[in-house]
Amino acid sequence: TQLHVAAETKPLGKPGTAKLDTDWKDLGFEFRPTKSNLRITYKNGEWGEFEMSEDPYINVHMGATALHYGQACFEGLKAFAHEDGSVHVFRPDENAKRLQSSCERTLMPVLPHDKFIEAINEVVRDNIEYVPPYGSGGALYLRPLLFGSGARIGLQPADEYTFIIMVMPVADYYKGGLSSPVDGILITDFDRAAPRGVGNVKVAGNYAADMLPNMRSKKAGFPIGLYLDAATQSNIEEFSTSNFVGIDSENKKYVTPKSSSVLPSITNKSLMKIAEDEGLTVEARDVLLEELETFDEVMACGTAVVVTPVGSITKLGETDEDTVKYTFGESQEEVGPITRRLYDRVRAIQYGEEEDKNGWLYKI
Ligand code: PLP
Ligand code: COI
């Protein structure tokens, strides 16, 4: 491994100047090597210093609690290049807070807020050439990861932890981005999270639990799956990788589920603010499954998926007659005007084309 303590702040390079094996415009959402990743170790009751590494591998004890007991959590956020070449991270304060809540729930030591922000700054600076250039539609995806790296065999928290931030240039999670709505399926045979479980924090196990339903949905031809609440199966919760938003255009309402087992999405929080600014009434409350038919637009929102229009949601029955397909808007090929407007505005803020009135951007 090539670990070294992070260098003193060097002059910043230019976004979009790294050599990739593909064009910046053809990026998908997949792992891609960059210059470095950042690591911090927690040992003897304290967090150490930053280390930058060029090695994509980590040397972990086979008894690490993350591997056996899922003592692990992660975050996802993005850095954007503006037209003047400056680079800005979207709302890292919020990710710092959510990471802390994930750590608290799984008895991992919290990473101090300032240390998280400094780490973000350091890793983006070092990989600035990999930030997709302004105009490409891409972003540098930052994936902070924190896990128990110390060995235990009895069920108890580790005494050693590792924090890593890996980064990679990405584009849309769903190919086609805003231009083509995706078809959703209602997941009726599995639950994502229990009411008093860990659905409200971003722990690794939530995503392991979703692998099977997620892959089944995709195989059945539905790129996105929607979960219901575990206790009653009557309320909408969220998608595998994103929050649910329904638009009732006639009543100018932005409706999103409020639940103890839904991950509090930073994108959703931002869109709620923009929606209010657009004159919509925001309702964060229980959302009944039957209400699906009242929405003229449905979107999935999150860091990776940004704002993804959902054209339909199918509830498969035993037979064709029992199958219900909820469709949104006049045509499932077209993106609804409110979805488009919210997408355009959040993107404009992220790319520095609209004034950042709420102070959401953190400049590198
Ligand atoms: N819900 C789940 C289950 C997620 O994994 C994510 C992604 O982080 C989101 C919602 C969206 O959250 P955010 O907007 O903070 O990325
Ligand atoms: C993100 O949007 O950053 C996420 O973490 C979702 C991930 C499962 C792709």
From TrEMBL:
Pfam family, one: Aminotran_4
Residues carrying N6-(pyridoxal phosphate)lysine: K202
Listed GO MF terms: branched-chain-amino-acid transaminase activity
Transmembrane segment boundaries: none
Keyword match Cell wall biogenesis/degradation: no
Cofactor(s) the protein needs: pyridoxal 5'-phosphate
Domain of life the protein comes from: Eukaryota
Keyword Chaperone: no
GO biological process: branched-chain amino acid metabolic process
InterPro entries: Aminotrans_IV, Aminotransferase-like, B_amino_transII, BCAT-like_C, BCAT-like_N, BCAT_family
Keywords noted in UniProt: Aminotransferase, Pyridoxal phosphate, Signal, Transferase
PANTHER family reported for this sequence: AMINO ACID AMINOTRANSFERASE, BRANCHED-CHAIN-AMINO-ACID AMINOTRANSFERASE 3, CHLOROPLASTIC-RELATED
Protein family (similarity comment): Belongs to the class-IV pyridoxal-phosphate-dependent aminotransferase family.
Record's protein name: Branched-chain-amino-acid transaminase
Species assigned in the record: Chaetoceros tenuissimus
